[in-house]
Write a structure and sequence with these properties.
By secondary structure, this protein is an all-alpha fold. It contains eleven helices and no strands.
Length: 349
């Protein structure tokens, strides 16, 4: 078992205990509220159907009650909720991880990614210590750079995976409340937002496994090239090249979360684009608002100047406006006979 797999298993055990404890606590708190709301709703809809206040058939009402009973049974039963919702979402993540070939979890994928770096560093360090008087310092430095390169990618991958796991565990803990929100049309958007956020955390791990699978092949080729040339005159330069490749791959891994959130329809956490785009959008909004206000002020001042220098035209336009508002609208009811003379004089001018 590698270090990443051991760390992931430890976090999974802690998060499993957290989900069981707090999801049961949430269910215990909200069960009386849910039962009260459902009881009132069932009695009220039954009364409306029996009294003829609504046109729904009794079969439609029974189907609606059956859907409410199924959702409430899942939301208010902790083991059933965890076996269906939690195991279902985690099963999606494991299925994608197995299909991508890097392992069902991020930890196993990270361990596979670290293998060429560990092998390269061990080879260089053991070769460097074969000197009679002092070790080969160039090989020691090269092995250190390989260790830093592997650690960089592993730290970025594990940090993103741990963030996604913690977020997913918190969502599982408070999930029964949002699952109950799926009962009514006015609160369904909260259940949809919760589900999209959970899918975002799941797809973050999926995208990490997929990205690690691709990037591992790249770093493995670089390490193999450096391994064949480590006995040459410049092993440190080769190790620095591998370090640069690893830094580039780590930068690519940092964008896996935003891609996963885009796939799930949610929002990315810690997205650099959002942090940069928010002040830009705010400045654009201020500019548009300023141009709108400035344009309105200019139009108002021009209108005031026009009325000041051309009062006759202003009175004529106002008279025409009052005359048009006095005329009946097309297709409207004809006015009484005592108004016909006034309307005829207005029409004839």
């Amino acid at each position: 078992m590698g270090v990443a797999t051991w760390l992931e298993n430890s976090v999974n055990a802690a998060m499993a205990t957290y989900v069981v404890t707090y999801s049961d606590a949430v269910i215990a708190v909200f069960t009386p509220v849910v039962l009260t709301v459902l009881g009132i709703y069932v009695f009220w809809t039954g009364y409306q159907v029996m009294s003829g206040l609504v046109e729904d058939s009794l079969g439609a009402v029974f189907r609606r009650w059956l859907r409410y009973a199924i959702i409430s049974g899942i939301a208010l039963n902790g083991p059933v909720y965890r076996s269906i919702v939690q195991d279902g979402l985690e099963g999606i993540q494991g299925a994608f991880g197995t299909a991508l070939g890097a392992g069902p979890t991020v930890g196993s994928a990270v361990d596979g990614m670290l293998d060429p770096f560990i092998a390269m560093a061990n080879t260089l360090w053991s070769t460097a210590m074969t000197g009679l008087l002092w070790p080969a310092f160039n090989l020691l430095f090269a092995g250190f750079f390989y260790s830093v390169a592997g650690s960089l990618m592993a730290i970025v991958s594990l940090c993103l995976a741990l963030i996604a796991k913690i977020i997913l565990s918190v969502l599982f803990a408070i999930g029964p409340v949002f699952l109950f929100c799926a009962l009514f049309p006015t609160t369904q958007r909260y259940a949809e937002n919760w589900l999209m956020t959970a899918f975002g955390a799941v797809f973050t791990n999926v995208m990490l496994v997929a990205s690690i699978t691709v990037l591992t092949s790249i770093t493995r080729v670089a390490c193999q090239h450096a391994l064949t040339n480590y006995g040459g005159p410049n092993p440190v330069s080769d190790s620095i090249g591998v370090l640069l490749v690893s830094a580039s791959c780590a930068y690519i891994l940092m964008h896996a979360q935003s891609v996963a959130s885009g796939l799930a329809g949610g929002l990315a956490i810690g997205n650099l684009g959002n942090e940069v785009g928010r002040p830009m959008a705010g400045g654009m909004g201020k500019a548009l608002w300023g141009s709108t206000v400035l344009g309105a002020d200019m139009a108002r001042s021009l209108a005031a100047s026009w009325s000041r220098f051309f009062p006759t035209a202003n009175h004529m336009s106002q008279g025409a406006k009052h005359a048009m508002t006095a005329l009946p609208a097309p297709g409207s009811t004809p006015p009484p006979m005592y108004q016909r003379g006034l309307i005829e004089r207005l029409r004839n001018g």
